[in-house]
Write a structure and sequence with these properties.
0% strand, mainly alpha, 134 residues
Length: 134
C-alpha cells in the first residue's frame, strides 16, 4: 500500500474547505430568514446556529489559507525553476487580482470571526457568505 503524496493531502484539504464554503453559502441565508420571520422552533436555538455557522466559516477560512500557503511553499521549495517562476508570475503578473480576490474572500475575510462580537451576529456571517456568490 502506498502512502499518498503531500500534494494529495493538501488538495483534499482544499476540497474540504470548498465544500464547507458551499454548504454555508446555502445555510446562512436560511438561518437569516428564520430569524427575520421569527420562526418558532422548540429545538432550534438561533444564537447557537449563528455561532456554529460562524465558527465553521472561521475553520474553513483557516483551512483554505493553510492549503494556499502549503501549495506556495511546496512549489517554491521544490527545486523546479518552472514552479518557482509560476508562483512569481501568479503573484506579480498582470492577473494577480484573480488570485488575490479568492485569497481575500475565502481566507482573510472569514478571519474576522476571531472577534466575539462579530462571531455572534448573523450579519457578519451574511456578509462573509454573500461574498462567496459569483
Amino acid at each position: 500500500m502506498s502512502i499518498p503524496s503531500i500534494f494529495a493531502i493538501i488538495h483534499a484539504a482544499g476540497y474540504l474547505a470548498d465544500s464547507i464554503f458551499i454548504g454555508l453559502k446555502f445555510i446562512v441565508p436560511v438561518v437569516f430568514l428564520l430569524i427575520i420571520f421569527k420562526v418558532k422552533s422548540g429545538k432550534a436555538n438561533f444564537v447557537s446556529l449563528v455561532l456554529a455557522a460562524n465558527i465553521l466559516l472561521l475553520a474553513a477560512g483557516i483551512l483554505f489559507l493553510v492549503t494556499i500557503i502549503a501549495n506556495t511553499w511546496l512549489a517554491w521549495n521544490s527545486g523546479n525553476e518552472f514552479e518557482r517562476d509560476f508562483i512569481i508570475s501568479i503573484a506579480t503578473g498582470p492577473n494577480w487580482y484573480q488570485i488575490m480576490i479568492p485569497v481575500f474572500v475565502y481566507g482573510i475575510l472569514p478571519q474576522a470571526m476571531w472577534f466575539a462580537k462579530l462571531r455572534r451576529t448573523i450579519f457578519s456571517s451574511l456578509i462573509t457568505a454573500s461574498s462567496f456568490f459569483g
